[in-house]
Hints:
There is one protein chain. The protein has helices at about 1-25, 30-50, 60-65, 80-90, 95-120, 125-130, 135-140, 145-160, 165-180, 180-200, 200-220, 220-230, 230-235, 240-245, 250, 265-275, 280, 285-310, 315-335, 340-345, 350-370. It is globular. It is mostly helical.
Amino acid sequence: MFEIIFNTIVINFFLLFSISFINLKYFKLNNLIFINLLFYHLIFTSIYLFFFKDGAADYKTYLNLTTFNGFSLKSLVSADLITTLVAILKICFLNDLNIILLFSLLSLSGIIIFYKNLLKLGLEKNIAIFFLFIPGIHFWTCVPGKDSLILLFLAIFFYFYIEQRKFLSLIFILLVFLIRPHIGFIFFASVIITEFFLIRGLKKIIFLSILLFIFYFVINLDMVRYFFLDEKILSENIIVQIISNLNNFVNKFTYSDTGYESNNFLFNIFSYIIFPIEFIFTENSFIINSTIMIESLTFLIIIHLISKSKKSIFLEKELIYFLMTCCTIYLLIMPQALFNFGLNVRQKWMIVPFIIYLSFLTKNLLVIIKNK
């Protein structure tokens, strides 16, 4: 009884106090906005738990330690990394409610840093505030799982990338790689491609030499060798799945059983970012239909807000190059190679913030060109 009271009151209070302290020292959101945002986020967390209380959900697998087989090298990658983290938290006497709240607050932190990044890029504060309250990003990243952590790490990565602290930013890409290798690989490759095209002369040769050395060093790490070369892991490796799908790329556009429209490249991207149009006519699920309506309205509002931005800023061409490269690579691969509505409706929030960054900077660039 004491343990239940301690966990429910003391630990949850400590977690809420911690996020409030972090806001006071680092996020520096207005107190009223922060309290409303916290309440708003926790409501979505409660709604998520209510809707999926009886059905299958990944967060239950993590909380129940269904796939936990002890601490090992394998437990440091992909879903096993989340399960291991949850196991450690339980060893530290956190119960399921504490862990749900912790991951929910990590997700909230990622959303706030996403907002701070928009401010750093020059978006007006009165417009950027709206992006704190996008329903989908709160709902789909609020529970224990990969999505809450990746949202946070990618937001921190871009925060440091904007500040030109690139080596520090790459640490968070490495963390993303450990959780979802394909996402981490796409962002790391985008950074490398951007740097390659921006540097000149001797710096480019030095850069390539260092890159090859790092690549050789990383590939020979025991953990990386295990992840890529172990037969069991290899059979489940998402990167191998992507390569396999890309090998069948041509067949993808002659026959599709994934919910995508055959022979329509842009349609696939639209379906991934927003929703498959065919679901409007065939899906009777309240959750899916609600998701479609809410996210359609959300994207219309986003487009409207970005178009209303009139602030003139100095554009770093490196940011434009990186965002164009990142979004292009992601959208060329993910919507074409993989599809599962339940998975993609969560995973897309890894790239949507970067599409928003790019949309704002591109719109601003067009305004600058027009005024010249």
